[in-house]
Design a protein that fits this description.
CATH architecture of the largest domain: 2-Layer Sandwich
Strand order of the largest sheet: 2-5-4-3-6-7
Radius of gyration: 34 Å
CATH class of the largest domain: Alpha Beta
Distance between the termini: 94 Å
CATH superfamily of the largest domain: Ribonuclease H-like superfamily/Ribonuclease H
Structural class: alpha/beta
Number of domains: 3
Pfam families: DNA_pol_A_exo1, DNA_pol_A_exoN, HRDC
Protein name: Ribonuclease D
Oligomer: single chain
Order of helices and strands: EEHEEEHEHEHHEHHHHHHHHHHHHHH
Strand content: 5-15%
Number of strands: 8
InterPro entries: 3'-5'_exonuclease_dom (IPR002562), Exo_C (IPR041605), HRDC-like_sf (IPR010997), HRDC_dom (IPR002121), HRDC_dom_sf (IPR044876), RNase_D-like (IPR051086), RNaseH-like_sf (IPR012337), RNaseH_sf (IPR036397)
CATH topology of the largest domain: Nucleotidyltransferase, domain 5
């Protein structure tokens, strides 16, 4: 509605401001309702001492062994500061014992801790972030519960630890120090308090989420997901250099080769120094050098990003990398699009295989409907990669039963859990059959259209002349 700015809406004295449907300019005088802040989470037992000696570790292990139930575990890394993803602090808490903070850098072995944790359930938040660094120091879970993944399965829109703790337990968590350099020694007391809070109520959060999983019939789904996480390994990145920010600005295979060579040189230096690669030279410098392709150190120093301390220190290495690229034959240089082992990008399916494109769209719609029905993210129902691979190369059979069995086998072979297979295999099978049926109907309609056109074309031809009699009735010619 558009109001006349010169008119003043009349509102009866008894009317509630804002109740007049004929006015767009009513001011609501009701006081704004401000939700009270939740109580700030604090440590029940204060900040525990940092465990740095064998004697102190033995005490921590004895204390954990005296506790009962699952063990809340967290690890702090120095992402953004260090090249490695090693753990620089481990936090643990268990009912019946105290919170422990362990400095893994101080120990050659954490075998005593691994022994006391054997057979316990670990509670982790976002397990895929912490498991690799915990495995690196010899700690492997016998069982686990991932509170972040549980939140996803339950359909919570935001599953960060602080959000779940406030939503389910009613406590606010401190957010500072999350991006701290945990390789710092000594660790500040405020950082240790922050770290201890990460496991303070993790056991209670686990119990609340576990109860919801049972209530919603998703407990078995979660059990299968958690079991799969126990063997989680980070997948090595293929052509990781292609993730350099700004790569789209690079034109030509030789410039792409320069990006690759400079990235690999930077990565080697970062690994050797154990610093994050961006602290040596930023991605922007790699892109700028790949575009300019300088031929010597003087030209390189004119490139933006190569006149700082880190860039200048390794000037000879950068020039050497560029010289190697300059000497390569054209067919030795990287291509714009990497060769993958999977199907083509979905945008190319319609051209390469229209039937596959149709079955992918049908399956996507069906899986999206399932995710909405069960209140969980689509990617947790079935990963996009598994769905694409299955739809690009489904089983050859079109017998409904055999096709379903084949789809089940394919999904299982690619790591889908039994609960995911049970939900998605039937709709994927239906999508394959429907796509084929639609293609057949389309082909039949096209054939019928062509036949009709041929018939129409024949009917438009002039009729052939009837043969004429050249004689009279008695057979005599004219």
């Amino acid at each position: 509605m558009t109001s006349d700015p010169s008119a003043t809406p009349e509102t009866p004295d008894s009317a509630d401001p804002g109740s007049d449907p004929g006015s767009d300019n009513v001011v609501d005088d009701a006081p704004e309702v401000v939700e009270p802040l939740a109580d700030l989470l604090v440590l029940a037992d204060g900040v525990p001492p940092l465990t740095e000696t064998a004697a102190a570790l033995a005490e921590v292990c004895a204390d954990l062994a005296a506790g009962t139930g699952p063990v809340a575990i967290d690890a702090e890394r120095a992402s953004g500061y260090r090249y490695s993803q090693r753990a620089y602090l481990i936090q643990l808490r268990r009912n019946g014992s105290h919170t422990a903070l362990i400095d893994p850098i101080a120990f050659d072995s954490l075998a005593p801790l691994a022994e006391v944790l054997e057979g316990t359930e670990w509670i982790l938040h976002a397990a895929t972030q912490d498991l690799p660094c915990l495995n690196e120091i010899g700690l492997y879970p016998s069982a686990l519960f991932d509170t972040e993944l549980a939140g996803r399965l339950l359909g919570y829109p935001r599953v960060g630890l602080a959000t779940l703790v406030e939503t389910l337990l009613g406590f606010r968590m401190k957010k500072e120090h999350s991006a701290a350099d945990w390789s710092t020694r000594p660790l500040p007391q405020a950082w240790l308090e922050y770290a201890a809070l990460d496991v303070e109520v993790l056991v209670e959060l686990r119990d609340r989420l576990a109860a919801e999983l049972e209530e919603t019939g998703k407990a078995e789904w979660a059990r299968q997901e958690f079991e799969a996480l126990r063997s989680f390994k980070q997948t090595p990145r293929t052509d990781a250099w292609r993730r350099v920010s700004g790569l789209h600005r690079v034109r030509g295979r030789r410039s792409l080769g320069a990006v690759k060579a400079l990235w690999e040189t930077r990565d080697d230096l970062a690994a050797h120094r154990d610093v994050t690669p961006g602290r040596i030279i930023p991605d922007a410098a790699i892109i700028a050098a790949a575009v300019a392709l300088p031929t010597d150190r003087a030209e390189l120093q004119e490139v933006k990003g190569f006149h700082g301390r880190g860039a200048d220190r390794y000037g000879a290495r950068w020039v050497e990398a560029l010289e190697r690229v300059a000497a390569l034959e054209e067919d030795e240089l990287p291509s714009r699009s990497p060769k993958g082992d999977g199907p083509p990008p979905p945008r190319a399916w319609a051209e390469k295989d229209p039937v596959a494109a149709t079955r992918l769209q049908l399956a996507r719609d069906a899986v999206a409907a399932l995710s909405e029905q069960h209140h969980l993210p689509v990617e947790n129902l079935l990963t996009p990669d598994v769905l694409r691979r299955t739809l690009w190369s489904p089983p050859a059979t079109r017998d409904a039963g055999d096709l379903l069995d084949g789809v089940v086998d394919q999904l299982t072979a690619m790591g889908a859990r039994a609960w995911q297979v049970a939900l998605t295999a039937p709709v994927i099978t239906t999508a394959v059959l429907q796509a084929d049926a639609l293609a057949a109907d389309k082909a039949a309609a096209k054939a019928a259209e062509k036949a009709a056109q041929r018939e129409a074309d024949r009917s438009d031809l002039p009729a052939e002349a009837e043969p004429q009699d050249v004689g009279d009735s008695d057979g005599e010619g004219v």
